[in-house]
Automatic annotation (TrEMBL), chain A:
The chain crosses the membrane at residues 55-78, 106-126, 164-185, 205-223. This is Succinate dehydrogenase cytochrome b subunit. InterPro entries: Cytochrome_b-558, SQR/QFR_C/D. It comes from Algibacter lectus. Keywords: Membrane, Transmembrane, Transmembrane helix. GO terms for cellular component: membrane. The keyword Transmembrane helix applies. It comes from the Bacteria.
UniProtKB/TrEMBL annotation, chain B:
NCBIfam families: dhsB, PRK07570.1. It comes from Algibacter lectus. One of its GO terms (molecular function) is metal ion binding. It comes from the Bacteria. Residues 151-181 form the 4Fe-4S ferredoxin-type domain. Its cofactor is [2Fe-2S] cluster; [4Fe-4S] cluster; [3Fe-4S] cluster. This is Succinate dehydrogenase iron-sulfur protein. InterPro entries: 2Fe-2S_ferredoxin-like_sf (IPR036010), 2Fe2S_fd_BS (IPR006058), 4Fe4S_Fe-S-bd (IPR017896), Beta-grasp_dom_sf (IPR012675), Helical_ferredxn (IPR009051), SDH/FRD_Iron-Sulfur (IPR050573), Succ_DH/fum_Rdtase_Fe-S (IPR004489), Succ_DH/fum_Rdtase_N (IPR025192).
C-alpha cells in the first residue's frame, strides 16, 4: 500500500481524499456560520461547543490542520513535478481550446486560498489559540459582552470593509477552485461514467452555493452592524 | 493561399532549437497539412536549404506517427483527427501558422518536429499484452461470452493509436489517457483479467519512471485525442490500481 501512495495515481488519490475531507469541513463550517445570520444565540452555543469539546479540539482539529497542510504541500509538490515533466514550453499554446481556465489554474486559485487561510488564521484561529491555550481562558466569555463572545467577535471582524473585500475575493477563488476540484476529486477516485453528469451538477451547485453563502454572511454582518 | 510558417528548427537532440519563419505560396485549400509541408520542403531543397524533418507514415489517420503542435493545439485546430487528416481549408489566406514538436520531457526532440516516443513503447512492453499460447491450440475467442457493453468499451479503448497528442496537450505532460486506454482495453475483457493486477502496476510504474507528469483532470487530452478516447479510461485505470494495491 505504501508503494501505491508513491505512484502518480496514488498521489492523485491522496489529493482527492484530503479534498473530500476539506469539502466536508467547509460544509459544516458554512452551516455553523449560517446560524450567525438566523440565530446569534444558537451560533454562540454551537461555537462554544466546537471550541471547547475535547474531541473537536484535540482529535478533529489536528486532523483538519494536517488535511489543510497536506493538500497545500502535495499540491505544490505535484505542480513542481509536472513543470519538470513539461520540458521546453510551447511558443504558442491554446489551452482555452480544450480545457477550462479553472482546471488549468488550480495552483493559482490554490495560492489565493492559501493567502486567505493565512489571513483567516490571523483573524480568528490564532486569537482563539492564544485565549484558550496560552491564557487558559476556556470560558467563552469576554468583558463587556453578555453571554458568549463568539458572535460579537464575528460582527466586529466584519465591520472592516477592507476585510470584507478580501474575504469576498478569496471566496471567488474558492468557487473557481471547487468548480474544477469537486468533480476532479471524484474522477481521481475512479468514479464511473454513469455518475458523471450527476456529479457535475452536484459539483456546480456546491461550488457556487457554499462560497456565495459565505459572501452573503460576511456582507450581512457588514451592512447590519 | 499564401502563408507564413513559424517552425521549430533543431539540428539534433543535443542542439538548441529556435523558431524560424518561412513563406509558402499558392497553397490549395484541398491539400492536407502534410502536403503543405511537402511543398515547403521541396522549396527548401530547391534553394539548397535543409528540409524540415517531421514524422509521418500512413497519412490516413491510423499509424499515429504525425505529431505536430499547430497553432497551440496537438494535430492543429480540428477535432478527432491526426495532422495528416488536417486540411488547409481550416486556415485563411495570409495566416501565420506556428508549428512546434510535441513537447514533454519524456518525448525528447530528435530533429526539428520529430520527437522520440519510445517511452510509450516501453510502457506497452511493461504490460500492454496478454500471455496466450499461440502454438495452434488457441481457443476460439468467440467461445468466451463477453457483454456487448464491455466489448464496445474495450474496442473504444483499443482505438488508441499511441500518437502522444494526450501528452503533448496536457499541461502536466501526463500520459494517463494513453496508459488508461491500454489498461482498460484488457481489463474489460476476460482474457485480460487474468494478468490485470500485474499489468496496471507495471504499466503505471513504467509511466512514472519515464518522467510523465501527474494528471489533474483538465480533460484537454480527451478533447485533442484523434480517436476520442474518453477520460473514463483514466478513472478505470485509477480503480484498477486501487484494486491491485489493496
Amino acid at each position: 500500500m505504501s508503494g501505491f501512495f508513491k505512484s502518480s495515481i496514488g498521489r492523485k488519490v491522496a489529493m482527492a481524499l484530503s479534498a473530500f475531507f476539506l469539502m466536508f469541513f467547509l460544509l459544516q463550517h458554512f452551516a455553523i456560520n449560517m446560524l450567525s445570520v438566523f440565530s446569534p444565540d444558537t451560533f454562540n452555543e454551537v461555537s462554544h461547543f466546537m471550541g471547547t469539546n475535547p474531541l473537536v479540539q484535540f482529535a478533529l482539529q489536528p486532523v483538519l490542520i494536517f488535511g489543510v497542510v497536506f493538500h497545500f504541500i502535495m499540491g505544490f509538490i505535484l505542480e513542481l513535478k509536472n513543470k519538470k515533466a513539461n520540458g521546453v514550453n510551447y511558443a504558442k499554446n491554446n489551452g482555452a481550446a480544450n480545457s477550462s481556465w479553472m482546471s488549468r489554474n488550480m495552483i493559482w486559485s490554490g495560492v489565493a486560498i492559501l493567502a486567505f487561510v493565512v489571513l483567516h488564521f490571523i483573524d480568528f484561529w490564532f486569537p482563539e489559540i492564544n485565549t484558550k491555550f496560552i491564557q487558559g481562558d476556556w470560558s467563552g466569555t469576554m468583558d463587556g459582552v453578555e453571554g458568549f463572545r463568539y458572535y460579537e467577535e464575528l460582527v466586529h471582524k466584519f465591520s472592516n470593509p477592507a476585510r470584507v473585500v478580501a474575504y469576498v475575493i478569496a471566496f471567488v477563488f474558492l468557487a473557481l477552485h471547487l468548480m474544477h476540484g469537486f468533480t476532479s476529486a471524484f474522477q481521481s477516485m475512479g468514479s464511473t461514467a454513469g455518475r458523471k453528469q450527476t456529479l457535475q451538477n452536484i459539483g456546480k451547485a456546491y461550488s457556487i452555493i457554499i462560497p456565495l453563502g459565505f459572501v452573503v454572511i460576511a456582507l450581512y454582518h457588514f451592512f447590519n452592524h | 493561399m499564401n502563408l507564413t510558417l513559424k517552425i521549430w528548427r533543431q539540428k539534433d537532440s543535443s542542439s538548441k532549437g529556435q523558431m524560424v519563419d518561412y513563406k509558402v505560396t499558392d497553397i490549395s485549400e484541398h491539400m492536407s497539412f502534410l502536403e503543405m509541408m511537402d511543398v515547403l520542403n521541396e522549396q527548401l531543397v530547391n534553394t539548397g536549404e535543409e528540409p524540415v524533418a517531421f514524422d509521418h507514415d500512413c497519412r490516413e489517420g491510423i499509424c499515429g506517427m504525425c505529431s505536430m503542435y499547430i497553432n497551440g493545439e496537438a494535430h492543429g485546430p480540428d477535432r478527432g483527427i491526426t495532422t495528416c487528416q488536417l486540411h488547409m481549408r481550416m486556415f485563411k489566406d495570409g495566416d501565420t501558422i506556428t508549428i512546434e514538436p510535441f513537447r514533454a520531457a519524456a518525448f525528447p526532440v530528435i530533429k526539428d518536429l520529430v520527437v522520440d516516443r519510445t517511452s510509450f513503447e516501453r510502457i506497452q512492453q511493461a504490460g500492454g499484452f496478454i500471455s496466450v499460447n499461440t502454438s495452434g491450440n488457441t481457443q476460439d475467442a468467440n467461445s468466451i461470452p463477453i457483454s456487448k457493453i464491455a466489448a464496445d468499451e474495450a474496442m473504444d479503448a483499443a482505438t488508441c493509436i499511441g500518437c502522444g497528442a494526450c501528452v503533448a496537450t496536457c499541461k502536466n505532460s501526463s500520459a494517463m489517457l494513453f496508459v488508461g486506454a491500454k489498461v482498460s482495453q484488457y481489463a474489460l475483457l476476460p482474457q485480460g483479467r487474468v494478468e490485470a493486477t500485474e499489468r496496471v502496476q507495471n504499466m503505471v510504474a513504467q509511466m512514472d519512471l519515464e518522467g510523465f507528469g501527474n494528471c489533474t483532470n483538465t480533460g484537454a487530452c480527451e478533447v485533442e485525442c484523434p480517436k476520442g478516447i474518453s477520460l473514463d479510461n483514466i478513472a478505470r485505470m485509477n480503480r484498477e490500481l486501487m484494486k491491485a494495491s489493496v
